[in-house]
Write a structure and sequence with these properties.
The complex is a heterodimer.
Chain A: E1 5-7, E2 10-13, E3 19-24, E4 31-38, E5 42-50, E6 53-56, E7 65-71, E8 74-79, E9 88-95, E10 103-104, E11 108-112
Parallel strand pairs in A: 2-11
Antiparallel strand pairs in A: 1-3, 3-8, 4-5, 4-9, 5-6, 7-8, 9-10, 9-11
Chain B: E1 4-6, E2 11-14, E3 19-25, E4 32-38, E5 45-50, E6 54-58, E7 61-66, E8 71-76, E9 85-92, E10 99-100, E11 104-109
Parallel strand pairs in B: 2-11
Antiparallel strand pairs in B: 1-3, 3-8, 4-5, 4-9, 6-7, 7-8, 9-10, 9-11
The chains are: A mainly beta, B mainly beta.
Chain lengths: 113, 110
């Protein structure tokens, strides 16, 4: 079975540019989560969706961050404009049911110069 | 104070040792408890998933939950170099999001 698929795996871009991260959850999963992981702050939940509807975006750091889930098989996390402090590994995860174990993708390693 | 506190580590043990990884939590509503293993440059992968207080065993791994003390542990027996990774505890109330610990990095030396 295909797991959670994230793209790109690596992204290096200059400050001020728009960055779009993509995620394909496991088929049939109704929850999708976006996380950011850094050495200093660990794994931080940014936003999560249930049945394509955003439920909790309180972890989104500021208005430069936005996330969408246009259908059950695709989600994007966008940063515009990007800043060096956004450099981190961004993970997408999905689960079948709330509270159930989440399955993670291998992340997007983002570097903003 | 964080809802979930995880022993920070890092831990370094010789091959064959028994490893104990621990988390405490403050939210008594947490019902489901998980341990994830994360290898370098990979996403966390589910290792153990438990609901009730007590022990759950899977091969060399044992997850222990003590709801009265708000304390969970993961024991690894006969540790192997391939167990070298970061271990994250996570828990939730049975709906929505999970709360993760900050992780403990384990190194098992041959």
């Amino acid at each position: 079975d295909a797991g959670v698929i994230q793209s790109p795996r690596h992204e290096v871009t200059e400050m001020g540019q728009e960055v779009t991260l993509r995620c394909k959850p496991i088929s049939g999963h109704d929850y999708l989560f976006w996380y950011r992981q850094t050495m200093m702050r660990g794994l931080e939940l940014l936003i999560y969706f249930n049945n394509n509807v955003p439920i909790d975006d309180s972890g989104m750091p500021e208005d430069r961050f936005s996330a969408k889930m246009p259908n059950a098989s695709f989600s994007t996390l966008k940063i515009q404009p990007s800043e060096p402090r956004d450099s981190a590994v961004y993970f997408c995860a999905s689960s079948f049911g709330g509270g159930q174990p989440q399955h993670f993708g291998d992340g997007t390693r983002l570097s903003i110069l | 104070q964080k809802e979930v506190e995880q022993d920070p580590g890092p831990l370094s043990v010789p091959e064959g040792a028994i490893v104990s990884l621990n988390c405490t939590y403050s939210n008594s509503a947490f019902q489901y408890f998980m341990w994830y293993r994360q290898y370098s440059r990979k996403g966390p992968e589910l290792l153990m998933y438990t609901y009730s207080s007590g022990n759950k065993e899977d091969g060399r791994f044992t997850a222990q939950v003590d709801k009265s003390s708000k304390y969970i542990s993961l024991f690894i027996r006969d540790s192997q170099p391939s167990d070298s990774a970061t271990y994250l505890c996570a828990m939730n109330v049975g709906a929505g999001k999970s709360t993760f610990g900050d992780g403990t990095t384990l190194t098992v030396k041959p």
